[in-house]
Amino acid sequence: MENNSSTLVLFSGDLDKAMAGLIIATGAAAMGKQVTMFFTFWGLNVLRKEQYVKTDKTLVERLFEKMMPRGPEKLGVSNMNYGGLGAWMMKKVMKKKNIATLHELMETARELDVKIIACAMSMDVLGITEAELIDGIEYAGVTTYLAATDESNHNLFI
């Protein structure tokens, strides 16, 4: 029996790495593969809602909330970010070349039924609540993700 699924871990909260992950995921889904993306630690920033959501948090959780970018539009690039200048330049070039934005890639992933899982343990560590993340995703631990990798013919860590 042919295995027809792909799994990806998105650990990074960098714009370029998130884009690479979503381009691979949507490409695989467009080829008919079942795709599971597991967003953990800084990768959860991709799933954060852009608007502030009032929640009850500890001091450390509030500090994490303030220090982490809120949503795809606030992500910096992994190299040459220079206080956001690199991300701004990359977005400008992408727009000029009609390349999908991270937000558009996320919408495409959802349209192609890419399974998006937010790591429950990382959410707990960083004090991120379900109310702060985008709608239509799943919340699970690493065992759920590892079960998906057992059925996958490849697994990527970004």
TrEMBL record:
Pfam family, one: DrsE_2
Lineage: superkingdom: Bacteria
Keyword terms: Membrane, Transmembrane, Transmembrane helix
Entry-linked InterPro entries: DsrE2-like, DsrEFH-like
Stretches that traverse the bilayer: 20-44
Stated name of the protein: Peroxiredoxin family protein
